[in-house]
Amino acid sequence: MSKNILTRGHSRALTRHHKLAVAGVAALGAAAIGLSAVPSDAATTTTTEAAAAPTANVAYSTEPIQGVKADVTDQLAGASVKVEQIAAKKEAAAEAAAAKKAAAAAAKAKAEKARQAKEAASRAAERTAVKKASAKSSPKTYSNNLDGWIRESLAIMKKHGIPGSYDGIHRNIMRESSGNPKAINLWDINAQNGIPSKGLLQVIPPTFEAYHVPGTSKNIYDPVANITAACNYAADKYGTMDNVDSAY
Predict the structure, then answer these.
(1) To the nearest whole number, what is the mean pLDDT of the chain?
(2) Are 221 and 199 in contact, with CB atoms under 8 Å apart?
(3) Which of 87, 113, 114, 152 is the most interior residue, by most CB within 10 Å?
């Protein structure tokens, strides 16, 4: 019966200390049985021996009990360490997850900022392109009068590197034609030779053709074409129309 009770009480294998404790208990039981079986006339001797036996067995059985206690204490200590390790791992995992989340948020913010900058640059480029296209499709306009003709001619002259000033051109026009783009000289030597001077700056046809500036009309009476060709001729012969103060 003692063996069965011990088996149900402990599910794990018996250690050396456990076995010794069981042996001590068995010895106590045997002594008790011997005591009850001795005749009455030998009671004194048997009682003395029986009394001595438990003392040794009880003293011997304390060692395995202390071993079991120490084993349980070790297990509890080990379990405590494992709990601390698990908690530390969970904390480390949580910190790693938070760092990863923060890094992802920073990367997302950086990408969003780069996208916005790219879109802003694209919009700026589009505005610049629209302005350029608008400038090309909508050239500057000039008034259809003497002031507008001189200014438009100066713009063309600037592109072709032809010198001249507004005042120099205006002064010579007023002397040559009084500002009449259809003016023609029918009495000077040129007219006598069949090549009369024409237009605002009184240019003869051969000179107009020789000094015609690309981009202007081929009509000698066109105000802008006449001014530009005459200034081109004056630049070649006199350095600039500003240096002309008489028939040229």
Answers:
(1) 79
(2) yes
(3) 152
